[in-house]
Amino acid sequence: MTPAEGVDGAAGGRVLRVGSELTIPLAEIALRTSRSSGPGGQHANVTASRVEAVFDVLASPSLSEAQRARVLARAGPRVVAVAQDERSQARNRELALERLAARLAQTLAVPRARRATRPSAAARARRLEDKRRAGQRKRGRRPPQGEGD
To answer: What domains lie within the chain, and their CATH numbers?
Structure first.
């Protein structure tokens, strides 16, 4: 987890920090628990250690309209993160919230605009030289021209 992502106890309640400019109160995130799949013996049969964190994009007052539109376009109306890696439900809750923050940060990231560039003179010269070399190689593969043909 990066310093910009994670769970804080600030602002009168616990919040999920997503990037540098967005915080989401944990009250907006639904946490569901269930029994974890996979091995684990008797412990896995009796503990609900799997945690699913669900964020409803449409119902969230924390997102601006631009952020909401971006998340809806890239991730849909619900963003879900699941953790069942650890034995402890508390640790899986932390992991699910971290994954949710990472997924939201990824969907909110605005890609840098591509700036058009031109190839350098050296790059153009290399390209033409490579083309000349390829042509010579192909000419060398041709059968010899016969005098009577």
So the answer is: 6-108 (3.30.160.20)
